[in-house]
Amino acid sequence: MKISLSRRDFLKMGALSLLGLAAARVDGFLALTPDQQGRVLFDDIIVYDKPSFGGNAVRKYWHDTVLTINEATVGDEEPAHNRVWYLIDGEGYTHSGGIQPVRTIPSTPITNIPPEGMLAEVTVPYTDARWAPDINQKVLYRFYFETTHWINGLSYGDDGIPWYHILDDKWGLTFYVPARHLRPIPARELATISPNVASQDKRIEVDTANQLVIAYERDHPVFMAKAATGAKFSNGTFYTPSGCHYINQKMPSRHMRAGNLAYNGYDLPGIPWVSYITENGIAFHGTYWHNDYGLARSHGCINLTSQAAKWIYRWSLPAVPCDQRRVYEKNGTRVDVI
After folding, report:
1. SS3 labels along 45-80
2. What is the largest CA-CA distance in the chain?
3. Rounded to the nearest 5°, which phi and psi values hold at 190?
């Protein structure tokens, strides 16, 4: 649904009290289903007896534990940028920043994979990629919910279980993942949003002060999402570059790696819906290692939820055909970082 507001009113709504922003996120969880889950993102998280870091600790959970999310609510004044808390397993509350909302939706494997391969997304909290279609093989990477990967084949293990072949775009290697854990994405789901709006009439604004991304059509705001842009870390300053940029390259999936993993480096396969705005790799993309938007915390990129990044990817130009892994075209959609 498109909305029609003045820029001033839209910004006021977006940067309104962080309570307002938090409440907007809670609205998305009003229809929680019984199968709504959450994966622990950090080394550990604490469950409190009330939605506040000042509450009494009830329990601790560790990285990659999958829990049940019963409801979302607005906590107390801190942290101001994100006041959403989740009720976990009916036993207490934990801050949403350390929980990735996930579901477990096994998929039916397909055998008619086109020669050029096709895009698929993980539909379970996580699945392990291995050297061969065998559960006893060494785990190479863990693929997380809503990450995207390029599948180009199907094999069956000795036990008859089907495995997709994953062609990794960073190393050029083939990994194997249980096919029931990935959903091939149909072409209709990758179609351009607002295809009849001219390129010059689409524009994106990245408001770093308020950590907001706003998309405009003919100066009318049509989409807004909270973001996490570049920050300063102990090993350097990685602010998202201000000024006027243009989306110049897009990839539906990207394995990103940089630096020393023991010192603020990263090695992240399957980052979804990547839309680059600079030649040195600054991009909009989905994020599966935190759920804490509204605070600068990236290495320069514009972190979004996977669904928000997918919207930007589909709406912005250049468009990417569903059978291509990458499109490079200068002077795509304009992006103003302020």
Report:
1. EEEECCCCCCCCEEEEEECCCEEEEEEEEECCCCCC
2. 62
3. -110, 5
Taking residue 253's Cβ as centre, other Cβ atoms within 10 Å add up to 24
Terminal CA-CA length for the chain:
26
Tokens 């090993």 belong to: 235
Length of the chain (residues): 338
- Phi and psi dihedrals of 98, rounded to 5? -105, 15
Contact (CB, 8 A) for 328 and 249 = yes
Amino acid at residue number 336: D
Give the integer Cα–Cα distance in Å for 270 and 5: 36
pTM listed for this prediction:
0.90
8 Å CB contact between 38 and 57: no
pLDDT at 260: 58
How does pLDDT run across 69-81, given as a tens digit for each residue? Answer: 999 999 988 899 9
